[in-house]
Amino acid sequence: MSGRAASARPRPGGGRSHESRRPAGREGREVGQPPGPRPSPAWPGPALSSPSPARRPGGADLRASAPGPGLGAPYLEVDLVHHLVSDVMVDSDVQGVQVKENIKFTPSLSEQRHKFVLDFVRKHKPQKVADLGCANCKLLWRLKYHESIEVLAGLDIDENILTRNIYRLHTGAGDYLDPRERPLTITLYHGSVVEKDPCLLGFDLITCIELIEHLEAKELAQFPEAIFGFLSPTTVIISTPNSEFNPLFSGKTVFRHPDHKFEWDRTQFQSWALDAARHYGYSVEFTGLGEPPPGAEAVGFCTQIGVFVKNIPNTDESLHSEKTTECTHTKVGTVIYPSLKEEKYLRKAVSNEVFSYILKMKRDLLESLKMKNDSDGCDEPEYVQPECDEFKNDPTEETPKPFCIENVFYVPLERLFSFPKIKHLCGDRETLKMLIADEVTLSSDGSSVMINIVDEEDCDLNDNDGDDYDLDH
Amino acid sequence: MTGRARVRARGVYRSSESRLSGQSQSSAWSHLAAKDREAATSSGLLGIKRIPQKSEEGISAGDGAECTLVQRGGRTQHRNFLELGIHTREKLEHVKDCKTGTSGAPVKLVTNIFNLALPREWHLFQYHVTFSPELASKRLRIALLCSHSKFQKKAKVFDGSILFLSEKLEEKVTTLSGETRPGICITITVTLTSELPSCSPVCIQFFNIIFRKILKKLSMYQIGRNFYSPVDPVEIPQHKLSLWPGFAISVSQLENKLMFTANVTHKVLRNETVLEFMTDLYNRKDKSRFIETCEKELLGSVVLTRYNNKTYRIDDIDWSVKPTDTFQKRDGTRITYFDYYKQQYDIKLSDLNQPMLVSQLKRKGTGNEEARIAHLIPELCYFTGLSKRMTSDFRLMKDLATNTHLNPLLRQQRLSRLADNIQRNKEARFELETWGLQFGCQMSLTGRVVPSEKILMQDTICQPMSSANWSKDMRNCKLLGARALNNWLIVCSHRNEDVAENLLNCLRRVSGPMGFHIEKPKITKVQENTTAFIRAIQQHTNLDLQLVMCILPSNQKDCYDSIKRFLSLDHPVPSQCVLARTLIRQGMMMSIATKIAMQMVSKLGGELWAVEIPLKSLMVVGIDVNKEACAKGRSAVGFVASSNSRITRWFSRCILQNTKTNIADCLKVCMKGALDKWYRYNHCFPTRIIVYRDGVGDGQLQTIVDYEVPQLLSSLRDSNPNYSPKVSVIVVRKSCMPRFFTEMNSTLQNPPLGTVVDSEATRPEWYDFYLISQAAYQGTVTPTYYNVIYDDNGLKPDHMQRLTYKLCHLYYNWPGLIKIPAPCQYAHKLTFLVGQSIHREPSMELADYLFYL
């Protein structure tokens, strides 16, 4: 099999489509068309005890496989552009090579990894989450939508990629129009995962998705101490390729990605993980993503994952006590989201709600008055209940009704407060009163909102009178 | 690719990250949010043309103006928003040395313009960069060059092929090498193409880019070409509106200095989701027509989806799809909308019965993809912009104006805060310093207040108390020339019969002192519907009918439109529509009747008043171009020319044409008509013609100078070979960046009417001036900008300014000054009526009347 794959290799054009689908940096984090030749069983998996020398098989292999100089450029392009290719379609339409051997994942494996993290977040509702090796920030972008998260941090060794991708995390008009319930601050840091920086202390979840295989042996050796020992978050998710799966791919490189320094089989990963967990007081569970095709179940998942949970949860004291190390990471950018925890946004949200209810009640009232007037002269008197469906069997029934004195319409605060959304936003009546005091007119005893019934519109002079007046001013 | 897109695509700026992936698959329709795309789509840096490369080896020491403005083949969409490199003044002999006027009292003015200082001998160095082997990806090129040690610490701007540096490299040609991946070497050749002085157009464009960067550093959002600050919005909850304060900015070379202009603007955001709107509409009466009304209101509006901050146009509503239905994702799996939003954005949809908004996504790239469609959830869509319904809501607009029309003092406060921020912010200051820019103080200058005008009536000359409004001053004065109204018709509904009688009485009372004779009209009462009105008019039209007055029961647009259409096309008679509601205002009837009477006099071809015009045999022309509301891609060109020396009578013509067509063709027809008319009344041709051209969009000046003016001149030659009048062409701009304030009683105020600014804030390459001819009762006055692009009349600048000011007095729909010369305002009114109501060219029989007032 490997022989056939090798003989089919130098195909003009095939190389390109093949490679362009593959993000070459660690950021790409994608399984493209990984290696064809079965790694020899003697391949030395770097264990903690015997770190293998750093290898860069990707570059060499690709160069060797390029049929001519003409194809050199596409390779290069791919290499630097890798981080721009956000989600690579896994072998959607690879031309040629060994179709029989292609493995497709739907949804894509990187999507599945993100989903794995998101499901975890949904279940455990961490408040502070950091993504190490966040690269194109796509996972952070997915995470920012989760209400439970209040602090998000991303760390990457490549500063360029962070400055180019921080835009994904920026706030937009929508975030101001409909602010989050809870605050959210996103910070991107430039630095190495093995440097001990206090800015990442006290997190609930740290994710290292397809990260460790990019570490040089020296860094890999420091990694457990930096993450589990120093940062010591409540939970850690680590994912990495499972090398046992690689033979199923019809590629030609040794590793799935040219920047990978190693790829572990399950035993290697698990022993490394168990070692680290034991040493730093974590328990670890293993799982994976990307099921092998029928008949090849023995190789295990395409991506292997370790979920680490700290045995003794962090306490406030343990967080504040020590670790006054100097900061080594540099801040690339901070994005602060508006939230209802800030009074100005809360005030806005409440007054918008209050106004829409009041204006609605006023309109219903006017309409019912108009109905009455009209029906006086009409053949078929028809009285329409001003209350609409929404008001039926709802809690507002119990509360004082809005009323009219002369031309002023009074809406009791009590009634406003009974609307679930307003109640939810304000919490208590005093807060409601305080928040809307500047926006509305309150009755003298402060129990109702007052609004004029007569539309002042009728009094304007310069309205749209056809061609009557021209307004130059 | 348009210039805008191209500039956006430059990789230098963070916002320029655009999506690369996701285009390989062309699914017939994919859910809009299946991919996150560029977060800030509207973040194009500048609508400028791509700075073209100079490939030759030589260094051009001069400016790169020519190269910037060369129209590149095939790209007609390019717009030179800053209108750089158009030198019209140098061709005007009489203003070469001095373009300033002399008359009037000097007035000290504060501006919204700031000095920018550069070191002496400052140059921008433009390099051309090539890569070998060639790199197709712009991003790759940018990444490679910017990460090179040689440029890492340097101030630079690089778009993939052109590199700008503030310091010169040692060599004219520098060869560097870089690695895209281990072992693969790329040779980068950097060649100096120009050394640009700060006043060169390329530099001006460049500075604009730099300042856009700076404002972003101040945490402002770019929307369109302006910058807004979302952190301290103004809320107007009763209308569900939020306002983001912000600035429009520009850097330009004014007279002899580089200047930064900042103008306070606001962005209106709406706190209303489409679902709220729909529910609201549903709960109003008449549920049977809900779907129809809903589609009428929603289709075509632009919405913002709150989860990804993108905008979409609503093209359709799919009432059959609900959030619990499924759609196919890109990867082929199916998911319900509800689950999708839960999974992707952690949003729990509250209404499971809402329909889907349908938006057709713009095709990107090659265009051989099938058009893609996005389904949007009403609950997650916010409206953007003000709807028609909102702009016609008087209270809303008033509340909006209260918050957006800032008086000079508040404006000044905002400006100083901006200046402060730019100077204090570390990153902003760093950006300025790297390029050697120094942000200076606010400019103040001296303007002149030109003498006020006397208003000539039939027997009297009145010197109004205020030229903003002389209605009081002309009370009991006879109008200059009113034609008797003998044969006319009033159409009103049965319900409004009394109202009509009342109006008629008032009209009789006010018309006497005006010298306007009104005979008894024929009054017809009809049902309250459009057809009844039209039928009544049809029945009662006769050849001698001079005017039709309609008293409309409501301001339904279709009724008004039908009447206007019938009376300007089928049976051309001037018409006067009045809302019944207007006529029931107690205590105001006399002033309303006065106004209506004056409008009727104008529509009958009468003259209301005049100002002294020292030039005899002068024809003034106003041109405006407006969009046609109904037919996309068509525009209405309005042409209004005076037909007597006193400039009290007008010839008006409106032509509908394709928006892309040059308006020069129809100018020929109009000009000929105007000259014939002039000849008929004066038995000679005018010796001077001054054309005020309004409706010039940003970036169109070049076309006007290059095509319109020559064609206008040739059309005059064609009309009569022996006739060669002296011609001036003036471009009128109602909106411009500069604002002027005067210090009075220890506070800032609007400058007095008639203030002219023709120095310092003007551009050296143009014969231009600012004139304040309108009174602002609220907020800060916007000066009107005049740019004389062609002038062989040889009038002194002072006379040109004063003539322009005089013309602002002659708009018969308002007894006071207006902000543009009357012929322009007439042309505007005409195009508005045609574009909004008639949609066809009105009958030539009406050309002598101001029937469109």
Q: In angstroms, what separates the terminal alpha carbons of chain B? A: 43 Å
Number of helices of chain A: 15
Q: In terms of structural class, how would the helical and strand content of chain A be classed?
A: alpha/beta
Q: What is the CATH level 1 assignment of the domain at 109-315 and 326-337 in chain A?
A: Alpha Beta
Quaternary structure of the protein? heterodimer
CATH topology of the domain at 109-315 and 326-337 in chain A: Rossmann fold
Give the low-pLDDT segments of chain B. 1-79
Largest interface: A-B, 83 and 96 residues
Largest sheet of chain A: 8 strands, mixed
Helix proportion of residues of chain B, in percent?
25-40%
Number of helices of chain B: 20
Derived structural class of chain B: alpha+beta
Q: Please tell me the overall pLDDT of chain A.
A: 72
Mean pLDDT of chain B: 83
Largest beta sheet: strand ordering of chain A:
6-7-5-4-1-2-3-8
Radius of gyration of chain B: 30 Å
Shape of chain B: globular
- Strand fraction band of chain B? 25-35%
Weakly predicted, low-confidence segments of chain A: 1-100, 377-393, 456-473
Please tell me what the overall shape of chain A is. elongated
**Sheet with the most strands, sense and barrel status of chain B:** 20 strands, mixed
